Amino acid sequence: MKILIRGGGDLGSGVAFRLHRVGWNVVITEIEKPLVLRRTVSFANAIYENDVNVEGIIARYAKDSQDIPELFDKREIPVLISPERFSFPEYQPDVIVDARLLKKFVEYSLNTKPMVIGLGPGFKVGMNCHAVIETNRGHYLGRALWEGEAITDTGIPGTVSQKSNERVLRSPASGYVQSNAALGTFLKKGELIGSIADKPILAPFDGCLRGLMHDGVYVEEGLKIGDFDPRLDENLINFISEKSLAIAGGVLEAILTYQNTIK
Question: What angle do CA 252, 258, 263 make, to 5 degrees?
């Protein structure tokens, strides 16, 4: 099975992790400067760092699609800067998973192959995908939907240790991200995390810096740029979240179900 995942953030990486673990080939495509927050568990970070190891699986930046076969031989995940391409001469995917979480309608022309799976809002079965995976936390998280669409984005992050909206770090200005603290750092309320256009990003409460965009990324004022965690466990930054794994399980179910249907 050949999989192409559009978007290598933490949710797309959770999908890539599970599909790679079952023995399938996975390619990730990204934009030139990925807007990933949880960089320690995001395969897209290979574009900045050349390679990244997430729970024992290595993803490597591939400058050209011709590098794909060699990386597969090494059982690594190729990550390419190629946001608009769905296939390559060296790689014709059986399945496209759109993990960009754009939360708006995405155009796809549906055929029997490749199968198209959409994560979250923006996808409607039969219009721009064959199956939708629910991404909203709650009872339906990770379900593979064969009709209709995912729950509309609430804009409210999940609650962790009674913290919800305050966990989200947003840009205080338009400009380039400059960090002053490494991911996994414990900070007291009010301590400096970083800055944008000389405006400080401060810890909203006592906790751990779980996610922050890479230095040098340009962002608009008010954009979500980081994730602060009230749980004082720095090891959490090294593990894929339960949400990502639940969504990945839904993707795996959808692929197997669809393959059995079209045979």
Answer: 130
Q: Which residues pair with 168 in a beta bridge?
A: 227
Residue 133 · residue 101 · CB < 8 Å: no
Q: Is the peptide bond before 114 cis (omega within 30 degrees of 0)?
A: yes
Six-digit token string for 48: 């900045």
Helix-strand-coil percent breakdown of the chain, rounded to 5?
25, 30, 45
Rg of the chain on CA atoms, in Å: 18
Indicate the residue type of 147. E
Give the tens place of pLDDT for each residue, 57-70. Answer: 999 999 999 999 99
Tokens 């090494």 found at: 74
Token digits for 146?
A: 């064969």
Q: In angstroms, rounded to a whole number, what is the distance separating the alpha carbons of residues 124 and 117?
A: 10
Q: What is the mean pLDDT of residues 109-117?
A: 93
**Distances from the Cα of 222 to the Cα of 9, 60, 207, angstroms:** 20, 31, 21
pLDDT of residue 165: 80
pLDDT exceeds 80 at position 32:
yes
Count other C-beta atoms under 10 Å from residue 100's C-beta.
23
Helices (H) and strands (E) in the chain, counts: 4, 17
In the sheet that holds 168-170, the strands lie side by side as 168-170, 224-229, 207-212, 186-187
Calculate the average pLDDT of the chain.
94
Closest among 138, 165, 141 to 224, alpha carbons compared: 165
Strand pairing category for 57-61 and 51-54: antiparallel
Amino acid symbol at 83: P
